[in-house]
Amino acid sequence: ALYRDSVGTLRLFFRMRPHMDDTTRRRAFRYAEAYFRQTIEGISETTVISSLPEHMRPSVLLELHQELIKSCSWLQETSFACCRDFLHALKSEILLRGDTLLRAGVVSRCFYILLSGELKVSFPPDGAKVSKLGSILGEGNTAILKASSHQRTSTRVPQGRIERIGSLIGWGPPHGVARPLAYSVEAHRDSSLVSITRVRLAEIIEEHPSEAPTFMRACEHATRLINPIKRSLDQENAPAQQGRLNAGRRCSVNEIMRQ
Question: The whole model's pTM is what?
Answer without folding.
Answer: 0.75
